Automatic annotation (TrEMBL):
Domain Phospholipid/glycerol acyltransferase residue range list: 41-151
Annotated protein name in UniProt: Lysophospholipid acyltransferase family protein
Superkingdom to which the source organism belongs: Bacteria
Coiled coil regions, renumbered to chain: none
């Protein structure tokens, strides 16, 4: 098994994230009690801004190992992100090392964070990749949908790459659900069906989160 990052390293990342996110913004966290207290879990996070990952990492009740595009691992960020238990992934190939490490996180009962849209976009879960279904079915892990709302607001920004400082960012955790159909099948058809089920659940969670927060 390829080296798997430890929960302790991700806990360091969580503590750094707590300080940064609560120092720069005003996170409002809803539904954190829904996250299973132990065992493998996948956070499926909508992605409309660069701050979404650090925000979830900081406010989640458990340390999280995010799959992050390798392009983010530049200069001093490379050893830093690796040191806090984050996973580098090449989105343009079948990155077997990243897959092995991500499955290792789940095998050890950890939390894997995924942006199922694959890249930053509208943050509405409209286009999902099959990777999330693969990890959920293969790793036997429930998915917890996570909606980050308010991170992409543009008015009042002092720094282009960040939401307005001290602005409210809502993070809403949903109910955990199983992506598979209970058969344990990992065929292409089974994963396609799982992806459909996931998309419905994530879209419904996002709609509920918007209603709840008024965002």
């Amino acid at each position: 098994m390829t080296d798997v990052p430890s929960a302790r390293s991700a806990e360091v990342g969580r503590r750094i994230g707590v300080g940064l996110m609560y120092g720069l913004f005003k996170p409002r966290v809803l539904g954190a009690w829904r996250v299973p207290a132990a065992g493998p879990v996948i956070f499926a996070v909508n992605h409309s801004h660069n701050v979404d990952g650090p925000m979830v990492m900081g406010v989640a009740p458990r340390p999280t190992h995010f799959l992050i595009k390798k392009e983010a691992f530049v200069g001093p960020l490379d050893p830093f992100l690796t040191g806090i238990g984050q996973l580098k992934v090449d989105r343009h190939s079948t990155d077997r090392t990243a897959i092995s490490r991500a499955l290792g996180v789940l095998e050890q009962g950890g939390v894997l964070g995924i942006f199922p849209e694959g890249t930053r976009g509208e943050g509405d879960f409209a286009a999902l990749r099959a990777g999330l279904a693969y990890f959920a079915v293969r790793g036997g892990a429930p998915i917890v949908p996570v909606a980050v709302l308010g991170s992409s607001e543009r008015s009042g920004r002092l720094i282009k790459a960040l939401p307005p400082l001290r602005s409210r960012v809502d993070v809403v955790f949903g109910d955990p659900f199983d992506a598979g159909d209970g058969s344990g099948r990992r065929t292409r058809k089974a994963l396609d069906e799982a992806t459909e089920r996931i998309q419905k659940q994530l879209t419904a969670h996002l709609e509920n989160a918007r209603r709840l927060t008024g965002r």
